[in-house]
Amino acid sequence: AGATTGISAQDFVGGGVNVTTADVTGMGINGVFAYSNGGGVSVDSSAGTVIGGSNGIVAAEYGAGAVSITTADVTGMNNNGIYARSNGGGVSVDSSAGTVIGATTGINAQDGGAGAVNVTTADVTASRFDGIYAVSDGGGVSVDSSAGTVTGEYDGISAQDTGAGAIIITTADVTGMSFNGIEARSSGGGVSVDSSAGTVSGASTGIVATDNSTGAVSVTTADVTSMISNGIFAYSNGGGVNVGSSAGTVTSGYIGIVAIDNDAGAVSVTSADVTGVMGNGIFARSSGGGVSVDSSAGTVSGFYSGIIARDNGAGSVSVTVDDVTGDMIGIRTIATDGATVVTLGSDAIVTG
Known about the structure:
This protein is mainly beta. The chain contains no helices and 42 strands. It starts with 6 loop residues before the first strand and ends with a strand.
């Protein structure tokens, strides 16, 4: 225990820092502070509990060394539970053996270069910002919270690659109290979100999965809920979009599922029950890759339209449904230069 920091280990010449500890308390600032300038940083507190008056654990590499953190319970009383950063060497955080609590962010893992960022957790809670915030600049980001529950006052999980690295997220329950349950964004590496092991809830959007370039976007879910905006928003610019929510219910304050490829990538949506309280149930659009919507495993309802499926290019549009309800239009299909096929179940009811 320390009045300011429990353990402070610093290297300024590239030799590296390794910290292995049981219980640590730093009442004033940090529980553990580990810093290197090129040699890498390793912190292992899996044998005990770490508490910091500000941050629980800070592991910072200001050269290109790797950063690795393995923990049990960690608490940051006024700031981050865990803060991990490198400038190209990659960041790995594994807190699956315990609970991480942060007053601001639960786990903040960043690589300012092209190093990979990998986060594996059990329960994570943040009182003011994101439960998990993970960012790279080309190395890709992987978040696996399937062993626990993640709750953030802003986003539950925010994962971003500002370069062309892939985003891979696997979760159980996730909640974003003020913004999104899960936010995943890449610029060419593709995005994969699998929350089929739990429920995702966001005050704004339940799940945001976007690739602003030609990376593929895949979203697989159980229950998803949003209060204000879309239940699921999935977007690519040519890589194709696949949304599968047939293992649960999607309910949103606006549009239940939005699946868009702004270029010639294929768009596929497979769902059970979907509700868009103030918008459409399902909106699916491509610009030449074709659109397929299969909601035959459930009921789709929307304030405006139940289902809108559209291809603005030469792609075909296929819709397979059971019950669909829209206050104005039940099902609307548009194929600018392709075929349109609507298949109804034997006892289907379409209302508009």
